[in-house]
């Protein structure tokens, strides 16, 4: 089994577009709060905060998928790990312009209704969104990234593809 990514353009209606923007704002705020928490904890108490500690303090949002929130905290943790290994800059606060989207790390909270050619995406607590595009190969959806670039929404789906399909293409 191999993993491949397929990206589709999303065409949300006005209500769904507002919900997507709202979720993006929530994830950006969580990212910035997690960065702030780590900085403050180290400066005031000389203590590092781990991903697990932050995950256990996650607020119980009813309108946002909990695994998507955990993935946002993983982004913060990954940014700090890269910094401490000397591979990246010190993590900074993100503005809405520089926080493009969020991730659903597993197949919960969303469904894709497609066989690789157009279709629609169903996000729990957001709604159905028409999508356009074509994947070269189609397999079992594993993870999803929702991204906003230049005012347009995209869904980037990680697919698990059977090796026999890869050899035939």
How would you summarize the topology of this molecule?
Blueprint: E1 2-11, H1 14-45, H2 51-56, H3 66-84, E2 101-104, E3 110-113, E4 117-123, E5 127-134, E6 140-149, E7 152-161, H4 163-168
Antiparallel strand pairs: 1-5, 1-7, 2-6, 3-4, 4-5, 6-7
Strand order of the largest sheet: 2-6-7-1-5-4-3
The arrangement of helices and strands along the chain is: EHHHEEEEEEH
Question: CA-to-CA gap between the ends?
Answer: 15 Å
> How would the global form be characterised?
globular
- Low-pLDDT segments: none
Tally the helices: what do you get?
4
The count of DSSP E runs of length 2 or more, i.e. the number of strands, is 7
**Beta content:** 25-35%
**Secondary structure category:** alpha+beta
Helix content: 25-40%
Supply Rg.
Answer: 18 Å
**What does the main sheet amount to?**
7 strands, antiparallel
Mean pLDDT over the full residue set = 90
Structural write-up:
The chain is of the alpha+beta class and 169 residues long. The chain is built from 4 helices and 7 strands, in the order E-H-H-H-E-E-E-E-E-E-H. Strands 2-6-7-1-5-4-3 form a 7-stranded antiparallel sheet.
Concise summary:
The protein has helices spanning 14-45, 51-56, 66-84, 163-168, and strands at 2-11, 101-104, 110-113, 117-123, 127-134, 140-149, 152-161.
Task: From the structure above, extract its key features.
single chain, 169 residues, alpha+beta, seven-stranded antiparallel beta sheet, 4 helices, 37% helix
